[in-house]
Amino acid sequence: MPLEGWGQLITLEGSHFTIVDYRDFYDVPRRILAKDDAGQYWVFSSFFDEDVDEYQDRFSLYFAGSDLAEAKVAFVKHCEFESGQPLISVSILRFAFDATTRSAFTIVER
Predict the structure, then answer these.
(1) Environment class of residue 50 by beta-carbon count within 10 Å: exposed (0-12), middle (13-18) or buried (19+)?
(2) Residue 102 and residue 110: Cα distance in Å, rounded?
(3) In which region does residue 33 sit, left (phi positive, over 0), alpha (psi from -120 to 50) or beta (all else)?
(4) CA 48 – CA 45 distance, rounded (Å)
(5) What average pLDDT score do residues 47-52 get?
(6) pTM of the entire structure?
(7) Which of 8, 27, 1, 43 is nearest to 97 (CA)?
(8) CA distance 96 to 90
(9) What percentage of the chain carries pLDDT values higher than 70?
(10) How confident is the model at residue 102 (pLDDT cuts 50, 70, 90)?
């Protein structure tokens, strides 16, 4: 599923991400700051839904920039619920995490 943004075309299928930081671990990290292979930083977030007493089954995707320091600031703000509008939402079933579920993931087609 391609995504238009910032004058570039982002293709999610097969995209590999290295996890820089994460919060709210429950089976997998639920808030992730990750770097893609092009050096761009992204925030992936699956918030806890208190109405159904479970985490969402999707990650919302937010662009966090190309500078690590700025991306870390954006991630902290996001974790404090100042997240803005997500670019896209992706099913958690499409995330293939590494064996530790804390270092990296690839978004696969399902």
Answers:
(1) exposed
(2) 22
(3) beta
(4) 10
(5) 83
(6) 0.82
(7) 27
(8) 12
(9) 86
(10) confident
